[in-house]
Fold this protein.
Amino acid sequence: MSLLHWAILAPFIMAACVPFVRKKATAIHTGWFVLILPLVLFVSFLQYLPVTMKNDSIMQTADWIPSLGINFTAYVDGLSLLFVLLITGIGALVVLYSIYYLSKTKESLQHFYVYLLMFMGAMLGVVLSDNVITLYMFWELTSISSFLLIAYWFDRDRSRYGALKSMLITVFGGLMMLGGFLVLSIMGNTFSIRELAAQAPELNNHPLFLLAMILILFGAFTKSAQFPFYIWLPDAMEAPTPVSAYLHSATMVKAGIYLVARFSPIFAFSGYWFWIVGTVGLFTMVWASFNAVKQTDLKGILAFSTVSQLGLIMSLLGAGSAALHFDSLDDNLYTAAVIAAVFHLINHATFKGSLFMVTGIIDHETGTRDIRRLGGLMSLMPITFTLSVIGAFSMAGLPPFNGFLSKEMFLLSMVQLAELDLFNLETWGLLFPVLAWIGSVFTFIYSMIIVFRVFGGKFQPEKLEKKPHEAPFGMLISPIVLASLVILFGLFPNLLSYSLIQPAAASIVPSIIPNGGQLDVHISFWHGFTTEFMMTIGVVIIGIILYKFLPKWIGMYDYFPGKVTLNNLYNASLYTAERGSHSLTKSYMTGFIRSYLVYIFAFFITILGFTIWVKGAFRFDSSNTASIGFYEVGLVIVLLIATATILIAKSRLTSIISLGAVGYSVSLFFIIFRAPDLALTQLVIETVSTALFLLCFYHLPKLSRHEEKRRFQIGNAVIAAGVGLIVALIGISAHSTKLFPSINEYYIKNTYTKAGGENMVNVILVDFRGFDTLFEIAVLSVAALGIYGLIKLRLEKGGEQNENE
Amino acid sequence: MEILMCIVAGLLFAAAVYLMLSKSLLRIIVGTGLLSHGTHLMLLTMGGLKTGAAPVLGENTASYTDPIPQALILTAIVISFGVTAVFLVIAYRAYQELGTDNMDQLKGTEADD
């Protein structure tokens, strides 16, 4: 265990301490204690920057299950460090924000911070694990902590619904991903991502390659809310706003992006990867931005916008995979897409984080997030207004904010794709820039809605629950920090170029970077009247026009069929699955003991009959059998007649006496077959049990057949005949197949010398197998106690009550 | 003889299963009794029949029958007696309390769940 491992585990340890802190220090908000951890982690991880800037990496291994090759390997390279800094950095800001957002007295803070810390640790584990199994474990832990955080206000129906939905979808994806990991590790014979990436060329030709890729992409797409799995994210907005800012915009939903980036060295050479990741991402971007416009809940808009922006990053990673098909680094246009993806990832975390926090402030101060009730807050909340302008304009891609730069790089990458002569892009290539542009227009529109519907327009105090005023300063610190970063990165993007972006991009496409080389990352603020700049101007002009005339065309959304939505599909399939499994269970768990016995016997017949038939196990060998004597035949006839009498008996007395007759014939058989002890025991026991039967005779009801129907009887008879047949077949085969001589020689020889007895059966019971007999006596004692208890037990009236005591 | 005994055991099993599937509690108990008789005969048959004298030393014979199945059956007889006894008492008490031995009625109704 190195320091790196402790850094991953630290949040979990801290989480365990939180309840005690909460209990002991009630005067201080628990958040202040929690805040220390992400700050310390952030600063301590900064020390790895010099290492990753040289495109080096650090690896520390701790044994976990070495016999299976599963180790807890922590691996720091440019990509993981970028994520670690996002997780701890945004984490610190979110904790600070939550101190003012969540009331110290009203909310159950210990739960909130335990879950939040659990998530932080899990997320660090995801991005720092090199072992796929460890990665998977932490991955599911993020799903679980997300579930708990969404359901934080668990008394609300919507919260529970959203939590369950996100859990079901992300865990479904996670299981698919686990399958992909296992397939991949079978192909490469290792669990280490680094070692798998090293054998990428061989893996590419493996027949299971495509399967592994698609399974892993399921994990990435569900987690990063890509089409068609995005439906959980809007419902996850029921979580407290700090959680939405942290998990559902800045970090957890980017785990899918991380996964795609991390596995790019293994999969990205394939054309399937390019098409699947690129088109799913781009389609998600357009679809979600289109849907964001019609939302009326402020957080709903942000949720769809997050889905859309994640799609944007995803499509850039898909486009970037084209870079692998060019050897020369100098004229490789497509590495720009990877760089743009990393850059936009950082930018999105900053502007979307601040926008979520602003939304939280509006919700907190006005009591609503419905844009139809909000308006005219500009003069009442000037600082919040400024922050939201910065965030939203950056999201819309306007200068001088960082979103402008990465949006331009995105458009440029999409334009370049149209010129690519790979993967049949000659025909379909033009779709990429066109779709990207349409998505950008809608992004512009909803960004404007966020700012001007809330802060512009007419102030409607009568629709608000509270009298709005500016938020307390503490609540504003975090969004101010993020908004300053938005401007800072916008004006000086090259602060990031070689410190964070280059190392991260280099980890995504390591194969095309020569030893000691670096990607060329130069982000210029002004780059002339290029195609992408013209496209941005077009976005702004068309966007403004469409925003102005929004009331004219918003009705268009009504033309979409209301019933055929993915949400309805999810609800219907969940409902059908619940109903289906309920009725399936009900159909065979009938509560009748007969049904269960039928299942057991039918299974017995099927499995044994099938085995006998398939294996050809039936043997018939009559050479080694004893002769059949006169008495034996007579006894068999008596026994069978007695048995038949039981079957057809109308009165209980008849059947009991017939059972006794069967028992006595069996003991006569024991005499004939040279088993005197058995015969004696059987005679005694049979007498006692017949007496017992007759004792109960007075109390038990008339032996009625309970009007068994003909069909019922025939069914029973068929099963009974089947069981009898199988037993007879097995008996005959077993007798005809002697694989080795009996071990009875040992007992015959040693009975006298070792145990000093002459009756072998008795000696076996009391000496050789003495313990068995002892426990047999114990069983009988238990039975006797049970009988005594049953007879003595007198249930009160309303026996159920007595039972439940 | 062994083949015949296997068939007899099979028939006993069939009768036992048929009884166990019926609706009356008493017939089910009788069925379990028959099932143990069938099992005992089967076990004894597996050791070979009439291969020698009874397994008691000093019988002045060249061979003895296999004592192991006999030891097993002796245990089984006693245990199956215990089972039958418990079963009977449960049936008796259930009838006393509930007034029926019909398995369909003993199952209870949906409302009782």
